[in-house]
Amino acid sequence: MPDRDAAIALWRRHNDDESLFRHALSVEAAMRRFAASRGEDAEFWGLVGLLHDVDYQRHPDEHLRHARPILSAAGWDEGFIRAVESHGWGLCSDVEPVHVMEKVLFAVDELTGFIAACAYVRPSRSVLDLEVKSVKKKWGTAAFAAGVRRDVIEKGAAMLGVPLETLIAETIEALRGVAEAVGLKGEPAA
Length: 190
Prior knowledge:
The chain has 190 residues and is mainly alpha-helical. It has helices spanning 4-14, 18-37, 42-51, 67-73, 78-86, 100-120, 132-139, 150-160, 164-176.
């Protein structure tokens, strides 16, 4: 399996949008945290998270139709590719999340973006002081982060058999660990 440096180089060959890169790093962090808490391979899970949108910038209307050839040519194995494809289940892929890692990816992909949006509207502009109750308060406001598919996140939590609040709390903790790298550390006090 290629390493993280190779994964980043591959991502950069197919993408140059820094916002998308911060999203990739966010999903990577969430995947690593969930893997560690389950005694799974955090490196493998993290790299799946890092490369889950490898074809998105160039092919947004054909997302995941190009991921398999890109990943295969770069030496990623079938299990890795299948996991990447599973995050779009019911949206742009027919690959159903079966392994727990695939279910986590399905659940946290949209959730990391929603949490980032919640952090950005805080006075601190930081995930470091963001609490689950603040995220839940925004959850019910349809106009807030309207592009985030809350139903997908809820379905992912249900597939994992965890309460939505637990999924949110663990994802917030993951993002706190990479807050600076993903632009969620906040603004210095004036």
